[in-house]
């Protein structure tokens, strides 16, 4: 088969990209390095925006039929004794599904689509180039595969991104421990965020009667599996309400523990002549806001749209790069800000946490606005700054007139320091995004 597009990586991003491009009439070959599928823990919770995109590719129904479950929004608690704040989705339903099952289902579904092939045990080692242009790839067995476009979707540790000389700023943030437990969540089919431990705990349903707990652990956690288990039992279990706490303890005692690093990766460029980065290869954020899969779907739809509008030429790739960063930068900023506030142990971060809850509990409008930002429905930087300012206002009231522990003056100056630091970060990153956008426009070679 003559190939128009080679997709490197048969993970979530690569497979859905293949489906979307095939829909637009491209002949697509997916090259997946593993014999089976990546066994390391990966994302399982997809926001409604991502589910709607999957529906558009006729991939949502097979995922639900395979055992995926509806998720209806989020719920958050400041500690195990605080009231639950519910933040329902207002733009449809989300999906929770075991990651290997999701990949297997997508693979089976796509195998039936004409013009699309998936080859496993095909590790891509290098690019084929013609002048400055990528014209294909070489796999570990020495085979050459040529196409008009190479889509690089080889995940966050992308080796191919480095081979292209595309810079990535990598920040190691923390570790994650993922546990599978049986039962139902206290507020039903919602993603739950439990605070009050040294890092946030995210829990969500990933199958009927099954819950995944994704526990964020700081980098200075005690060394050794036994010490980490003891640390989780002492410092995290009390933040989780019963009966989930008992299930968490049982799972920790009975199962081997895997520590996964969490990173924030930001790229400066995601397109060059003949090649684009997609999914985590193009960058990723902390998993707290469950953004990776929904962001990947945005990459996929953006690429398919520009392909439909401009074909596979460099104009299309330039357009993909611009539109992708317009979406991704906002998501990175929001996730960064929320994670820093939720993991912070200083009085400023604690006051902001209290302000977030007071704000959410103040009105339905505030809950919807925050949820729209969290789930990627609202991408306007102005809205993000407005919401942040409102939270800051509640936090200030909390510190000055509430029953926040410690000295008012010290707490208020810590709050100011943390908030202004965050706002400065947002302002700098937003300005940089705009400047980078114009710089890329100026420097990208013309087709
Ligand atoms: C702990 C954790 C929890 C997360 N939770 C969520 C969540 O709840 N919701 C959410 O939306 N996101 C979540 N994410 C993020 C989500 O997992 C990723 O965004 C998503 O998996 C990215 O998909 P991908 O296809 O880009 O990369 P990957 O899933 O990493 O897939 C890359 C594929 O490329 C293959 N590959 C690599 N190198 C080569 C090569 N040289 N040649 C051929 N093939 C190659 C690999 O074998 C793999 O199959 C989480 C991430 C982490 C770390």
Q: Can you give a write-up of this model?
A:
This protein is an alpha+beta fold. It has 3 domains: 5-68 and 98-169 and 267-332, FAD/NAD(P)-binding domain (3-Layer(bba) Sandwich); 171-262, D-Amino Acid Oxidase, Chain A, domain 2, CATH 3.30.9; 336-443, no CATH class. Helices cover 45% and strands 22% of the residues. The chain contains 13 helices and 20 strands. The protein has helices at residues 12-23, 48-56, 60-65, 99-110, 159-163, 225-235, 244-254, 292-310, 314-343, 347-362, 364-374, 381-401, 408-443, and strands at residues 5-8, 28-31, 45-46, 69-71, 73-77, 85-88, 94-96, 116-119, 124-130, 133-139, 144-146, 149-152, 168-182, 191-194, 201-207, 210-217, 259-267, 271-272, 275-277, 283-284. The strands form 4 sheets. The chain has an 8-stranded mixed β-sheet with strand order 6-5-14-15-16-13-17-20, with helices on both faces. Strands 8-2-1-12-19-18 form a 6-stranded mixed β-sheet, covered by helices on one side. Strands 3-7-4 form a 3-stranded antiparallel β-sheet. A hairpin with a 7-residue loop joins strand 5 (73-77) and strand 6. Helix 12 (381-401) packs antiparallel against helix 13. The longest helix is centred in the last third of the chain and has 36 residues, at 408-443. It is globular. The structure holds flavin-adenine dinucleotide.
């Amino acid at each position: 088969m003559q190939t128009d597009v080679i997709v490197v990586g048969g993970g979530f991003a690569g497979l859905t990209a293949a489906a979307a491009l095939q829909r637009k009439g491209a002949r697509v070959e997916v090259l997946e390095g593993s014999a089976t599928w990546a066994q390391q823990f990966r994302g399982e919770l997809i926001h409604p925006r991502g589910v709607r995109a999957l529906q558009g590719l006729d991939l949502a129904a097979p995922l639900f039929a395979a055992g995926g479950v509806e998720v209806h929004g989020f719920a958050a608690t400041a500690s195990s004794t605080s009231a639950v704040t519910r933040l329902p989705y207002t733009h449809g339903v989300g999906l929770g599904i075991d990651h290997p099952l999701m990949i297997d289902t997508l693979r089976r579904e796509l195998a039936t689509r004409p013009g699309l092939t998936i080859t496993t045990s095909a590790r891509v080692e290098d690019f084929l180039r013609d002048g400055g242009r990528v014209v294909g790839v070489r796999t570990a067995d020495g085979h050459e595969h040529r196409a008009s476009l190479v889509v690089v979707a080889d995940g966050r540790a992308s080796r191919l991104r480095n081979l292209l000389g595309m810079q990535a700023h990598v920040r190691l943030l923390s570790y994650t421990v993922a546990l599978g437990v049986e039962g139902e969540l206290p507020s039903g089919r919602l993603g739950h965020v439990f605070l009050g431990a040294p890092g946030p705990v995210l829990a969500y349903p990933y199958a009927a009667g099954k819950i995944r707990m994704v526990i964020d652990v700081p980098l200075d956690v005690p060394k050794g599996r036994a010490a980490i288990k003891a640390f989780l039992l002492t410092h995290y279990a009390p933040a989780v309400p019963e009966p989930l706490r008992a299930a968490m303890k049982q799972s920790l005692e009975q199962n081997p523990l895997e520590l996964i690093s969490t990173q924030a990766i930001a790229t400066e460029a995601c397109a060059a002549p003949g090649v684009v980065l997609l999914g985590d290869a193009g960058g990723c954020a902390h998993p707290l806001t469950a953004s990776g899969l929904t962001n990947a779907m945005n990459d996929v739809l953006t690429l398919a749209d520009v392909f439909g509008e401009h074909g596979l030429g460099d104009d299309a790739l330039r357009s993909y790069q611009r539109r992708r960063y317009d979406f991704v930068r906002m998501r990175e900023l929001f996730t960064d800000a929320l994670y820093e506030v939720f993991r912070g142990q200083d009085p400023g971060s604690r006051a902001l946490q209290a302000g977030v809850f007071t704000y959410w509990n103040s009105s339905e409008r505030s809950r919807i606005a925050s949820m729209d930002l969290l789930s990627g429905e609202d991408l306007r930087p102005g809205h993000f700054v407005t919401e942040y300012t409102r939270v800051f206002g509640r936090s200030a009231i909390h510190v000055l007139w509430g029953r926040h522990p410690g000295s008012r003056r010290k707490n208020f100056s810590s709050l100011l320091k943390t908030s202004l630091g965050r706002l400065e970060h947002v302002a700098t990153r937003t300005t940089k995004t705009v400047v980078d956008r114009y710089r890329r426009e100026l420097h990208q070679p013309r087709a």
